[in-house]
């Protein structure tokens, strides 16, 4: 605990025994550790009524920030990336302590923040439009991209800092201020990030006050942020019910929304699969972050000819999993976020048993792990792929395993869930791989071959279809969500020809 206290001090956050940050009300939000349930500290929280003034301050910041050249905005983001490099271990320690990620995954999350900073710096010199051939003589038709406005970011506990960075770094280089509503389960992570930003921004005279604000609070604060007409884009990451609520609120005012929601992700093990590679990809995808990733592998369809071998290998791997304190060397599976998540896991396993499933492992752990945390043994469930429980995403390490005979059937099973985020096939057959990636293959936003469903790189657009929400964050052309498109026609001639050959003589 002393080392964590020192990390908070180095990050510029006050000691964990005192109130962290600047309280905007007389109320506080308590931070608890997922490792052992201990109280870490408190942060000042806002009430829904504070959102209006925050948006007004952001709009003032927007007027100044959009006037700053994009490459200069990129230089500010470069400095943020360097500050994150400097504090990588300390910030990762806070992530592990607060939400229970193993050290390697917490370090990877901060590295993802650094990577998106690097990406955004390059992007700041590549916010390109188009020159389009005009049908009219002496006319130039072009497409321009301009800063959009205030961006509201609502993030989830499982990636308490990286998903925020995907949004905020692109928003910054695109000329937008950000209001961040972090998960109430990870308030210290948000306070640490805000402290880093505050110090970086102080070095730049071009950065307006309130370029970035944090609205710590409950779900009602997120609703207020989504409802405010002054917020040009609301990017929300979380559950499907949360996303539907945000979409309804933002849609009622015809605002822009970017949704990254649930994923009931599947992988296929084909007859030709390299099982050494496949097992590694399957296990990481299924148990990484204790099954609390939107890209977690939840369904596995194995060809009948390989089924017995795959099950035996998986049971052997699961039996050896090092489970416990996520900050201890060698641990691969830390805790669930809280007891409620553990209860949901047990309820799902009970339902699987009632539907004919055979459950391996999955028990709640109380010995050999820190007391007060929600530790579980990841579960393997042999079950028919059409069992109702397989259609439900439980945010816990449960892998439903079934067999198939024909690839077309496996692809149909892959697609036969409400969500459409991530998918994978393990095969050495190029025809099978290409079919899975084709228009008649997986219907997900992420389609992988010989790699698991988890662990996307920042260079590609991240997101999925159906109940996953349709949003795209991070790389590729995701930056366009944070800007407004302008179609511009310039007549540099002396005549006024009309489009489509229309004559309108006066």
- Please identify, by name, the CATH architecture of the largest domain: 3-Layer(aba) Sandwich
As a percent range, the share of helical residues equals 25-40%
Annotated CATH homologous superfamily of the largest domain: Aldehyde Dehydrogenase, Chain A, domain 1
- Give the low-confidence spans: 15-24
Tally the helices: what do you get? 14
- CATH third-tier fold name of the largest domain: Aldehyde Dehydrogenase, Chain A, domain 1
> What is the molecular shape?
globular
Task: Round the mean pLDDT to the nearest integer and report it.
Answer: 95
Structural class: alpha/beta
Terminal CA distance: 81 Å
Strand content: 15-25%
Strand order of the largest sheet: 13-16-17-12-11-19-20
The first-level CATH class name of the largest domain? Alpha Beta
| Tally of strands | 24
Which key phrases capture this entry?
single chain; 506 residues; Aldehyde Dehydrogenase, Chain A, domain 1; Aldehyde Dehydrogenase, Chain A, domain 2; 2 domains; 7-stranded mixed beta sheet; 21% strand
Blueprint (SSEs and pairs):
Blueprint: H1 2-10, E1 19-20, E2 28-32, E3 39-44, H2 51-65, H3 70-86, H4 88-99, H5 103-123, E4 130-132, E5 139-147, E6 150-154, H6 162-174, E7 178-181, H7 187-201, E8 212-214, H8 219-227, E9 231-237, H9 240-252, E10 256-260, E11 265-269, H10 275-287, E12 297-303, H11 307-319, H12 339-354, E13 358-361, E14 364-365, E15 375-376, E16 379-382, E17 398-404, H13 407-415, E18 419-420, E19 422-426, H14 430-437, E20 446-449, E21 461-462, E22 465-466, E23 473-474, E24 483-491
Parallel strand pairs: 1-3, 6-7, 6-9, 7-8, 9-10, 11-12, 11-19, 12-17, 16-17, 19-20
Antiparallel strand pairs: 2-3, 4-5, 5-24, 13-16, 14-15, 18-22, 21-23
């Amino acid at each position: 605990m002393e080392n964590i206290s020192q990390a908070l001090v180095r990050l510029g956050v006050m000691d964990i025994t005192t109130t962290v940050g600047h309280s905007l009300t007389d109320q506080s939000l308590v931070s608890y550790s997922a490792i052992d349930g201990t109280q870490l500290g408190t942060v000042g929280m806002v009430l829904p009524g504070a959102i209006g003034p925050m948006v007004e301050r952001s709009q003032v910041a927007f007027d100044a920030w959009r006037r700053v050249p994009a490459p200069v905005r990129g230089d500010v983001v470069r400095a943020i990336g360097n500050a994150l490099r400097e504090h990588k271990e300390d910030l990762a320690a806070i992530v592990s302590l607060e939400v229970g990620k193993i050290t390697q995954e917490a370090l990877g999350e901060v590295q993802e923040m650094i990577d998106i900073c690097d990406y955004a710096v390059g992007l700041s010199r590549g916010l390109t439009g188009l020159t389009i051939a005009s049908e009219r003589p002496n006319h130039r038709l072009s497409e321009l991209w301009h800063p959009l406005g205030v961006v509201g970011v609502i993030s989830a506990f499982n990636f308490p800092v990286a998903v925020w960075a995907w949004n905020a770094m692109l928003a910054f280089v695109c000329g937008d201020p950000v209001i961040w509503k972090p998960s109430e389960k990870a308030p210290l992570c948000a306070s640490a990030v805000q402290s880093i930003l505050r110090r970086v921004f102080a070095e730049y005279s071009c950065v307006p006050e309130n370029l970035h604000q944090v609205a710590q609070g409950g779900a009602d604060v997120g609703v207020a942020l989504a409802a405010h007409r002054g917020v040009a884009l609301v990017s929300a990451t979380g559950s499907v019910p949360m996303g539907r609520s945000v979409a309804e609120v933002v849609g009622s005012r015809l605002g822009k929304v970017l949704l990254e929601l649930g994923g009931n992700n599947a992988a296929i093990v084909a007859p030709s699969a390299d099982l050494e590679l496949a097992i590694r990809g399957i296990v990481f995808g299924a148990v990484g972050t204790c099954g609390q990733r939107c890209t977690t592998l939840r369904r596995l369809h194995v060809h009948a000819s390989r089924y017995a071998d795959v099950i035996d290998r998986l049971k052997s791997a699961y039996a050896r999993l090092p489970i416990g304190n996520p900050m201890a060397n060698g641990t691969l599976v830390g805790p669930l976020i809280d007891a409620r998540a553990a209860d949901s896991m047990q309820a799902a396993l009970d339902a699987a048993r009632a539907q004919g499933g055979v459950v391996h492992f999955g028990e709640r752990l109380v010995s050999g792990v820190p007391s007060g945390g929600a530790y579980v043994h990841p579960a393997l469930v042999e079950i028919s792929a059409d069992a109702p429980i397989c259609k439900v995403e439980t945010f816990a390490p449960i892998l439903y395993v079934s067999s198939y005979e024909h690839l077309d059937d496996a692809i149909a099973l892959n697609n036969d869930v409400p969500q459409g985020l991530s998918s994978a096939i393990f095969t050495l057959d190029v025809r099978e791989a290409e079919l899975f990636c084709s228009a008649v293959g997986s219907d997900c936003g992420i389609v992988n071959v010989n790699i698991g469903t988890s662990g996307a790189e920042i260079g590609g657009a991240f997101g999925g279809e159906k109940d996953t929400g349709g949003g795209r964050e991070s790389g590729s052309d995701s930056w366009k969500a944070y800007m407004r498109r302008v179609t511009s026609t310039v007549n540099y001639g002396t005549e006024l020809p009309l489009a489509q050959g229309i004559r309108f003589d006066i």
